[in-house]
Design brief:
The chain is built from eleven helices and 13 strands. With 312 residues, it is α/β, with parallel strands linked by helices. The protein is elongated and about 80 Å long.
Length: 312
């Protein structure tokens, strides 16, 4: 049986994260003496130096300390999971689950996932965080999120994912625009039309890449940073927009109609994926959400929901 304790490991991880014994003590609400003693005992039990203590300059982990900090985090997570599972004999999911979602996807995906959690796993404490495509992967890698949902465009290394559905880009036009007479709109037909560019990553990069690959230079008239504002400006006749996410109803918040048309050439667009850090063992709660989202991917696809509503 191991001679070290989970408390010693927890104190060690807290010091590694805070960068100092005093900082860890403040986080743990204990005295610095208690933290220092726990680290000393842990080093004695493991018969190795885990950190270099520098007076007035915090601590520096040794190579062994860096190795142990990662293993200790995993062990502490498993211990927490064991405690949560033991309360129900492993029959019921319980505990915290933090899900991140790209801000424009969230309205069409998150409510369904929240309903599933509330109905089938009421003891799971689901927290949803929305953000940009750039920040969510970084928050995942930093351990601030359990899972995230976003496009598989410009994702950094170190992530695992499952595909939920693919969503082709389309052109959004004002109702009655001459180009709405066509079922499929060539990108070159948009060259002289004013474009309203949703200027947030990865939407802007994806849109500009579509035009670049088609050899067309768009005439950008407006730049926006909000999905619904973009749709409202299109409905008011300020221009067209090329978007990926498609709401179930072709009306804006103002109630004005907009028209959706396919585009050509339509390069294969990015898919919507559920993402988590590579090498991290998912909690039972996170694994259950991945399984549910994968099994019900068609239900999450806005195009499938539109068909279910009898919409084109």
């Amino acid at each position: 049986m191991a001679a070290y304790t989970l408390r010693q490991l927890a104190y060690f991880v807290a010091v590694a994260e805070a960068g100092s014994i005093s900082g860890a003590a403040a986080t743990l609400h204990v005295t610095p003496t208690a933290v220092a003693a726990a680290i000393t005992d842990l080093e004695r039990i493991l018969r190795t130096q885990l950190m270099v203590r520098r007076k007035a300059h915090g601590i520096a982990l040794t190579p062994t300390g860096n190795f142990l900090s990662e293993r200790a985090r995993a062990l502490l997570r498993d211990a927490d999971e064991l405690e949560l599972a033991a309360a129900s004999g492993g029959k019921e999911l319980a505990g915290p689950l933090t899900l991140g979602c790209y801000v424009t996807i969230a309205p069409t995906i998150v409510p369904m996932l929240m309903e599933w959690i509330t109905t089938h796993h009421p003891k799971v404490e689901l927290t949803v965080v929305t953000g940009s495509q750039a920040e969510l992967p970084q928050r995942l890698l930093a351990g601030a999120l359990d899972l995230a949902i976003g496009y598989d465009i410009a994702l950094p290394e170190g992530l695992e994912s499952v595909l939920l559905y693919r969503t082709p880009a389309y052109v959004l036009l004002p109702e009655g625009h001459p180009l709405t007479a066509q079922e499929v709109v060539p990108l070159e037909a948009l060259a002289n039309e004013p474009q309203i560019l949703l200027d947030i990553p990865p939407a802007a990069q994806h849109t500009m890449l579509l035009f670049e690959n088609a050899g067309v230079i768009p005439r950008i008239a407006q730049r926006t940073y909000d999905f619904e504002l973009t749709r409202s400006l299109v409905a008011r006749g300020f221009g067209y927009a090329v978007l990926i996410q498609r709401p179930a109803v072709d009306h804006t918040y103002e109630g004005r109609p907009v028209a959706v048309r396919e585009i050509t050439p339509a390069n294969p667009s990015g898919g919507v994926r559920m993402i988590w850090p590579r090498g991290v063992r998912l909690s039972d709660r996170a694994a259950a959400m991945v399984a549910f989202a994968t099994q019900h991917a068609h239900d999450l696809d806005p195009r499938i929901r539109r068909q279910a509503l009898g919409l084109p």
